[in-house]
Amino acid sequence: MKPFGITVGDPCGIGPEITLKALHASPDYQKQALLFGSRSILSYYAQRLGYRFNFNTIDTLADWDERAINIYDPLPVEVSRIPIGNVSVIGGEIAFQSVRSAIEFAVRKEIRSVVTAPLNKEALHLSGHPFAGHTEIFAAYTHGSSYTMLLFSDALKVIHVSTHVSLRQACDACTKARVLEVIRLAHQTMQKIGYAHPRIAVSGLNPHAGEHGLFGTEEIEQIMPAVEQARADGLEVEGPIPPDTVFIRALKGVWDIVVVMYHDQGHIPLKMLAFDSGVNITVGLDVIRTSVDHGTAFDIADKLVAKEESLLKAIEIGMRL
What we know:
Structural class: alpha/beta
Low-confidence stretches: none
Number of helices: 11
Order of helices and strands: EHEHEEHEHHEEHHEHEHEHEEH
Mean pLDDT: 95
């Protein structure tokens, strides 16, 4: 079986810790995972956690050692150069090179999926890589006519029409073509996860879903036509639903997934419900990528209190995809 990749994320954050905790919690993954990141920081955390892991650094899969945890280290540095708990150029560079390397392995079909631990956007930019986040990096170096972010938890699932743009830009992005595209991505991805006939809700953009044009016309001019087209294509979809009630009804089981119009509309309810176990999935590309749905948490780095549940869930969902 092909290995799957785990990018360890910004070495100054909790990524190395939760990666090793996840592998310790699920020993079967130790033989299947190829880690992308700094070997020195992983060795440091293994010692801190008291794990007797055997690490093997590889350049190609020909170097694979089934008795060890295999690592591809794109930028070897001494652990003393890594300022744990702080935003840094070296942290951003290691995080970026780790993701880029994992994508290259995935595009060559040498690994079957990529699971990403968190990187820090400020550090990424300081190191000269002006991406908004993982989603945009994967979009730049993989292939696909359309893509978006889907947040998955046992309680709630949401998929985004827009993500890392300003709220003003998000309103402009709410077009019939884009909403229809995301409805279709929601349907396709939920089927891959195991939902034979996914029930999809589409949120409104404005208060009360526009109240028949009183509070905005995007629902009438853009969202409703997209929903009607999706229905005509045979998809089970409803909307636009007022944003202040759609998530409650989804939690009660009326729908399987909610199409949201912008970043915070989806992130706030999901993080309230599943901060430690939510999974971020980039959908629509030719590389399977899942991720934790939390940040680098520099404030607790090296305190050994970070939780690995979200990373374990991301690995599970990646395998299901």
